[in-house]
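Audit log entry. Action: structure prediction of a protein-small molecule complex. Ligand: pyridoxal-5'-phosphate. The ligand was supplied as SMILES and no pocket hint was given, so placement is left entirely to the predictor. Protonation state taken as written. Sequence taken verbatim from the request; no trimming, no tag removal. Recorded inputs:
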Amino acid sequence: MKNIYLDHAATTPLSEKAFEAMKPYFSDMFGNANSQHAYGREGAKGVSEARAKIANAIGAKNGEIYFTASGTEADNWAIKGAALEYREKGKHIITSVIEHPAVYTTCKQLEKYGYEVTYLPVDGEGFVSKDDLEAAIREDTILVSIMFANNEIGTIQPIKELCEVAHRHGVLFHTDAVQATGAIRYDVKDLGVDMLSMSAHKFYGPKGVGVLYLRNGLKMEKLITGGEQERAHRGGTTNTPGVVGMAVALEDALSTLEEDAKYVASLRDRFVQKVLAQIDDIYYNGAKDVSKRLPNNANFSFRYIEGESILFSLDLAGICASSGSACSSASLEPSRTLLSIGVPIGTAHGSIRFSFGKHNTVEEVDYTVDELVKTVRRLREMSPLYKK
Ligand SMILES: *Cc1c(COP(=O)(O)O)cnc(C)c1O
């Protein structure tokens, strides 16, 4: 049997359409998009069409889309670029405790260089409060960066409202929309954000390509200095196949977004319902209101046992899930996000994220529930902590 992939929050398989669109740019159309000859023009045309498609998909203007080499780079650019550009105005940044490491560790790094960072708390379901944000804003605050949707527990923040609070005080707003893009329909002008990050490989596009949306007229320092690429805002030869694939994948994802979200949520809901009915002593982490939760996300903490042991056993059964974030699974540190929503430290170690995708089936969900029930029962029987 083929392995069952339930880790779409870590990455997604490349869509067939995106793959086909990319192929010519790996072979005949290999030109450097910045070269002033026929090969260059061919590459430049591919890049400019990709830029227009992405702009159109999120309600931006073409000139507001900047290609990067990852979602991580887009986040770094937004934060460090603003920190450098506005250092005369102030050195205070506001973010949340549950940000992805691309934002969190970037803020930590800036603290070493004299910046002050406020990490807003979240409630038991992972929501940042508008009032907490308002209270944290100071004279010297230059940037607020709050993620659109969380990669571990799927909670969707009220970005438009949070952005309004920042703007009322004249502070710039960035959102890491890496998990949201392709899963939630949004328009950057309606959200009102100044900067937004996305990454192709989270919506069935290729790895190693991202976008930073920078609102027209916004002054920003560069992160990657070099040649005149990206209208002299980001050096480095453009990844032509990558950006072409990203644009096709995003267009494709948005063309069936509602149907796909509904299908994926139906698999997730079936899974959650069965798991809660068959396994005791667990927490279902994240937003309870499904309209405020990514359609693909289910995150559980299983008391008395280790998440790593569950994952190992599921892996043997051909099921690929994750202990939260791919980025921290190599360490034995409990998840910062789970601790922040109040999961006790011991229990946080027993947590697993299942993230579904549009190619998963009901049969895969049912098989996974059966294997999970068996695994949890077996591990608990061996656990000295479990006395029942
Ligand atoms: C995956 C992810 C990133 C990083 O994107 P890469 O393209 O893999 O660097 C950033 N933020 C969130 C919320 C993510 O899920």
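Audit: result stored. Residues 18 and 245 are 5 Å apart (CA to CA). The first strand starts at residue 4 and ends at 5.
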